[in-house]
Amino acid sequence: MAKIIEHIAKAKGKTLFSFEILPPLKGESIDLLFNGIAPLMEFKPPFIDVTYHREEFIYKTRPEGGLEKRITRKRPGTVGICAAIMNRFHVDAVPHLICGGFTKEETENALIDLDFLGIDNVLALRGDHIKSEGFFTQEPGGHAYASELIVQIKDMNAGKYLDEELRTTTPTDFCIGVAGYPEKHFEAANMETELKFTKLKCDLGGEYIVTQMFFDNKPYFDYVKRCKDLGIEVPIIPGLKPITSKKQLTVLPRIFALDIPQDLVSAIESAKDDKAVKQIGIEWCAMQSKELMAAGVPVLHYYSMGKSDAVKQIAAQLF
């Protein structure tokens, strides 16, 4: 197994293929996940990302009346899933680590487990707010920003743990990825602010960037240029997703604060059903992918959402 930056270096300029999956819902079989991964393995992904989902609050009615607030995680098991993927498919798995819902102690314990399992790649993220709240809330005893999470991981790579009295610590050796936003994070005041924090994350230890999905390559190319102008030299991996339903025209911009080009919107709006939409989305994403590959991007990273068919049709044209 290898680090992401090692995979990129070994490719010597050849564009690699990777994708991201969701952990199964609590109670579901991991076989559902494996069935979504298996069709994509023919394209030889060097790594697969596994998202981490924070807790949500639900309210249960008590027998005597009133409401009881409970914490639940709908998609637990990221660490175990990463180990299972590596065991089944012999490919590196990259767990997402998030700030929201985790204390520094819980984060340290997760990193120790990952280290024991031989998982040495992580993607460090702040994470989103929970659905019942309109903004991100820092966990008491946790991190408020991805930059703080990166510092904790780097400290562990240097053998520095939270308990400063430990005398026989073993350094970890994590390769740290960070998120980038070609159309800026929805909370960033402007693109200059976005780039400032991207550079901070890289200066603190981020070794590669994976971008938010986008449907127009121009903002990605502009983002890469502006990053380089600021002295950011790490690989910048574009994140892509084929649109597969009309509903996504409103859902994706609302959730991810991104723009969808009018040509794509018009084509989807004129489609007679979601089957036709899916084909339009595949063709558009394939067109994006070919242009990005021609430009020499290090990796084409697809947000599969656990459904492999559309991504497989795109990858078959490229890899």
Walk me through this protein's architecture.
With 319 residues, the protein is an alpha/beta fold. It has a single domain, classed as Alpha-Beta Barrel (TIM Barrel). The chain is 39% helix and 18% strand. It contains 11 helices and 10 strands. The strands form 2 sheets. Strands 1-2-5-6-7-8-9-10 form an 8-stranded parallel β-barrel, surrounded by 5 helices. The longest helix has 21 residues, at 274-294.
C-alpha termini separation: 21 Å
How many runs of DSSP E, i.e. beta strands? 10
CATH C-level class: Alpha Beta
What is the CATH architecture descriptor? Answer: Alpha-Beta Barrel
Number of domains: 1
Largest sheet: 8 strands, parallel, barrel
Individual helix count: 11
Beta content: 15-25%
Order of helices and strands: HEHEEEHEHEHEHEHEHHHEH
Q: Strand order within the widest sheet? A: 1-2-5-6-7-8-9-10
Radius of gyration: 20 Å
Give the overall silhouette: globular
On the 0 to 100 scale, the average pLDDT is 91
- At CATH level 3, the topology is TIM Barrel
Low-confidence spans:
none
The secondary structure category is alpha/beta
